[in-house]
Amino acid sequence: MQKRTLGNSGVELTVLGLGTWAIGGGDNPYGWGKQDDKESIDTIRHALDKGINWLDTAAGYGHGHSEEIVGEAVAGRRYEVFIATKCGILWKDDGSDIYPCLKAESIKQEVELSLKRLKTDYIDLYQIHWPTGNDDDIYEGWGAIADLIKAGKVRFGGVSNFNVKQLEIAQKIHPVTSLQPPYSMLVRGIEDEIMDYCGKNKIGIIAYSPMQAGLLTGKMTRERVMAFPDDDWRKTKSPHFQEPALSINLDLIEKLKPIAAKHNRPLSHLALAWVLRRPEVTGAIVGSRRPSQVDETIGAGDFVLPKEDIEAIDKLLKERDEALKKAGVG
What's the whole-model pTM score? Predict the structure, then answer.
């Protein structure tokens, strides 16, 4: 598998990393439905066996359950894996929802809990999960992460879902190693200015949802979407899985399949290779709930899209964007 250097860290990561959002389980408003813990552990270990060298998790995934599973899965293999987790999102007392909190004291309490759940004495990449919208909070929160780096509890600091202005604020306090934004064929907002800024400032981009929560695997059908369990967040919270966008997206997927087939590749490989075509992107987070899903996507790590295919995909994406606008959802 290809490897790329993560921002200013000097660390080489495989271009595919394992995402563990779904492994947090379904007992929360942002879950993916029930998940078997043993299968989760098997999935993580299988990914490491296949050569993936980094995992992405967060305290906010299943009230910290994802971190607990990661800690158990990598026990005895900690030296093999670069662990990225996140802070700055807290659960309400009744567990009904989350809210952002970037107070320094809160972040320093969070890191201790994450270290305990992960069964490690350091975190490779500690990321602010979401900005609050208040610039003062960024100063305080990012300052806390800088303190944790100096204390040796964190190796590198990153942010998630930040815009350029917010990145600029953080950079004044301590260098930002990475940005984790959403990026896929269906969500391309970071191409406007964020990618350019990150490239110029040696901030590695770690793309999340490169297959748009499974929609770009080529296995999603309208019937499957309609059959999602009630505790799957996609059923009620993702516009990509709601009509009229769902039909437009499914039509795009059918048009993309021949391009993937030309290379004897599944659509998931095409979606990942498209994200990785940009040099600013260090890697893509691929969520997996079963070892077999790792096997389905791992081959994308050596797939480089030729120019003519990139151009053909760009044309299809423009047609999809126009269809969305006509439908009043673009």
Answer: 0.92
